[in-house]
Specification:
This protein has about 300 residues and is of the alpha+beta class. It is about 10% helix and about 15% strand. It is built from five helices and ten strands, in the order ααββαββββααββββ. Strand 7 (about 255-260) and strand 8 form a beta hairpin. This is DUF1566 domain-containing protein.
């Protein structure tokens, strides 16, 4: 079995050998049970993961195509190298749900999203205003951000510019340390020095969003690493997400609630510039996109 970190790297590439087919297919994968910020109870979440979003193939030994095709470039082979056979069959674009997807109106390739209003009502795919997005594959509903303009908080509670430090008081799930309260820095909407409920950390942000009943719900939380990775569109970058449903996604790290095993000062974050995960110090201000279980 592949190391999880290596698996993630491989799945971001075009798979050109049969041995990588199982590693890149997400069809039967499940998210694990975990504790979540802002809930106080373990949340059991076992939806299927999305496919990668990769719909292009690669030639051998070099070059990427715009469509799901592949060619052996004999003129580029090493001297004496001979290669025969179907090099496309085991590539990512030829496998899984993306290969079977027939339309893109509800999300690119096999991604399937539903726009949601502030009151929690379902909206058509061409709606110009929406506050949340429900993922019909994973069963998760996601917060949508307001446009970034490099000014903290001026777009309100969901400003894409706003930054938060990692702070989670549940000692059974925070990896042995609460993180940083971030009492000093005005990096988010509503911050007032000396008023902890306004501080720019992920837990206080969860509380404020739940108080405001985003999309008619009060059970918003910080996503796990696996949940946040389910949004990544590996077929594109800058940002690595379907921007038709998640506009105003910044090319930066987004916090997950998942602590890094053996490192009390760090937690996992996902780069939506290129789609990879990395451990970051908890006092590192980053953005966050909240989630809830829609099903």
């Amino acid at each position: 079995m592949l190391n999880p970190s290596l698996k993630k790297i491989l799945c971001g590439l075009v798979c050109v050998s049969v041995g990588l087919t199982a590693a890149c297919g997400k069809k039967d994968a499940e998210l694990k049970t975990s504790e979540h910020a802002g809930s106080g109870k373990p949340a059991v979440s076992k939806p299927k993961l999305n496919d990668t979003g990769i719909t292009w193939g690669g030639n051998y030994p070099a070059d990427i195509n715009e469509d799901c095709s592949a060619t052996i470039l004999s003129e580029k082979l090493a001297e004496g190298e001979v290669l025969e056979g179907d090099i496309l069959a085991a590539q990512d674009c030829a496998q899984g749900a993306d290969a079977k997807a027939q339309k893109n109106d509800d999300g690119f390739a096999a991604f399937s999203y539903q726009k949601i209003s502030q009151s929690g009502e379902q909206l058509p795919a061409d709606a110009e205003q929406w506050r949340c997005v429900s993922d019909t594959i994973t069963g998760l509903m996601w917060e949508i951000k307001e446009p970034a303009d490099e000014i903290y908080g001026n777009a309100g509670l969901h400003d894409a510019d706003d930054l938060f430090m990692w702070y989670y008081g549940d000692v059974t799930a925070n990896g042995g340390a609460v993180g940083n309260w971030n009492s000093e820095y005005n990096q988010c909407a509503g911050y007032v020095a000396g008023q902890p409920a306004t501080y720019c950390n992920v837990s206080e942000f969860v509380s404020r969003v739940n108080e405001a009943s985003l999309c008619g719900s009060k059970d918003w939380r910080v996503p796990t690493r696996a949940e946040l990775e389910s949004l990544v569109h590996y077929g594109t970058t800058r940002p690595a997400v379907d921007v038709n449903f998640f506009p105003d996604t910044v090319n930066d790290y987004y916090w997950s609630i998942s602590p890094v095993v053996g490192s009390k000062d760090t937690a996992w974050a996902i780069s939506f510039q290129f789609g990879f995960s990395a451990p970051l110090r908890r006092d590192n201000p980053r953005t966050v996109r909240l989630v809830r279980n829609a099903n």
